[in-house]
Amino acid sequence: MKRGAGRRPTRGARRAKPAVEKLWGSRFSESAHPTAERFTSSLAFDRRLWPHDITGSVAWARALFRAGLLTAAERDTIVKGLEAVRAELERGAFPFRPELEDIHTNVERRLQELVGEVGGKLHTGRSRNDQIALDERLYLKDVLAHVGEGLRRVQETLVARAAESVDTPLPGYTHLQRAQPIVLAHHLLAYVFMLQRDRGRFEDGGARADVLPLGAAALAGTAFPIDREALAQDLGFAAAAPNSLDAVSDRDYVLEFLAAAAIAGMHLSRLAADLTLWATAEFGFVEFADAFATGSSIMPQKKNPDVAELIRGKSGRLYGNLLAVLTTLKGLPLAYNSDMQEDKEPLFDSVDTLAAILAVLPPLLASLTFRADRMRRAAGEHFSTATDLADYLVRKGLPFREAHAIVGRIVRHALDEGKTLEDLTLAELRRFSPLIDGDVKDAITVEASLRARAVTGGTAPAAVRRALALARTLVARA
């Protein structure tokens, strides 16, 4: 007997139980290490894709039948089994198995348990690579409809508040310094038009997501005669992806959603920043309803605009999610890589974050109390109509640069005297220019300043009413 023959293998040399539970387990002689299994599993987050996974699988079963790969009876058995799985998931009775890695494998294995061996035919000609790309695109198509509606509700509330305040003066700011009078409606409508661009971005991204990846298989395309155009039609896609490598490796649709969400988050953050600033005692232009404010654990007098502050703060999450997926994708060779699993949690987080913001904003905006008296008083302070005085001189024939210099000297004089423009006498004003006459006082009131800006897009109440009508039309448009 050779030396060592007949000895039992050492403990370290024993083979673990083969990985038979995995779809890919037959090639392996050793099961995944528990920590590796937990690390690679995506079930904890991709389970939310189950409605789309089942929808895609039903369509695939029908495509296999059209290709002659399933009999009618087999197709019907698989479809019936998938509907039974759907029912279990809907009522919360589905037996999720974490060791099966992802939602696709869980659904397929449960299908086989319910209908037997014929369930194993469903995966013919497809891969989890094109399957997940399909699920994500179907998911985003649903999400985009809800996001569009959420943005519309915010716009509708802003339009309603703007309609109440077309004649309400408000100081406009540049550099956070009082600049010129505007009306509150003009300020609110600025956000309506911002959000309209956001809706357009989501819609544009949705059009590029409307491409069917199923049939690309792992990377090279399915080897069976699947009618991908018919499959695209069944699933509501505009077209089938023309390149199988691109179909399974493309996540542009995720990036476009995340980018649009980040931009929308920025707009909503700026709105929240305006409101929180206006709610300070230093401004006093708005008061938050108690239902959308909180108090202090130590200062009993405090009323904090926490909801608006959190809207502002959550823009950081939306930015971070975009950067995370961009970073994940930037160095990946074609085609599919497991790194791409990391797109889902940022995507889902941005979907949830944006949905939460869009749900809370309409009632918050509707409940605000605007303090028109404070806004009107502030609109006329700090030489806010100085530009109107320069425009007055221009109308008298003076070049604007000369008028600008003259009014600058007038402002300096008023500051030295501790006066406002309205306090200066006609004699004082004429010391700076003989073109100034008795009609000057009517030209530099807040109301005159507002009326003068009647161009398209201006803050004159007449122009704002036209903008309000346009906003209503845009918001109502599908």
Describe the structure.
The protein is mainly alpha-helical and 478 residues long. It has 3 domains: 43-121, Fumarase/aspartase (N-terminal domain) (Fumarase C, Chain B, domain 1, Orthogonal Bundle), CATH 1.10.275; 128-163 and 183-372, Up-down Bundle (Fumarase C, Chain A, domain 2); 378-476, Ribonucleotide Reductase Protein R1, domain 1 (Orthogonal Bundle), CATH 1.10.40.30. It is 58% helix and 4% strand. The protein contains 19 helices and 6 strands. Strands 1-2 form a two-stranded antiparallel sheet. The protein has a two-stranded parallel sheet with strand order 3-4. The protein has a two-stranded antiparallel ribbon with strand order 5-6. Helix 7 runs parallel beside helix 19 (461-476). The longest helix has 36 residues, at 128-163. It is elongated and about 100 Å long. Residues 1-20 have low confidence and may be disordered.
Topology record:
Elements: H1 34-40, H2 43-46, H3 50-66, H4 72-90, H5 103-115, H6 128-163, E1 169-174, E2 177-183, H7 184-209, E3 211-212, H8 228-234, E4 239-240, H9 244-249, H10 252-278, E5 286-287, H11 306-329, H12 344-367, E6 369-370, H13 372-379, H14 386-395, H15 400-417, H16 426-430, H17 440-443, H18 446-452, H19 461-476
Parallel strand pairs: 3-4
Antiparallel strand pairs: 1-2, 5-6
